[in-house]
Design a protein that fits this description.
The protein is mainly α. The chain is about 65% helix and about 0% strand. It contains 6 helices and no strands.
Amino acid sequence: MATPLGILAAVAGAFAYVGTVDPNEPGHYPVCPLLQLTGAFCPGCGGLRSAHAFVHGDLGAAFSANAVATTGYFLFAAVWVLWLVRAWRGQPLRIRLAPAWWWGIGALLLAFTVVRNLPFGSALAP
């Protein structure tokens, strides 16, 4: 049980920090290198703003800043609960995804990145 609880403590600490130090104020966090070099949003752009809004309970702003990251928070929570239950029962956590799933996740992230950088996908931009 120590590992899932340790991971939860680390994630909670990171979210507490981002919740306290507002990424909407310039100078607190570095600028995304891809955004700085190319002007294009990567799939993670807006993730800190999303986490900040999520910590403050503003799910609309969290999804608006980065829909994929916000969905990832809920996915992480579900997997963490599964991990904790299995650890409580003394069973290892084994999640095996077929290669097609990994390719699908990669395609989804690529599509999200492309669409958020096009004029019609500006609602997905941070």
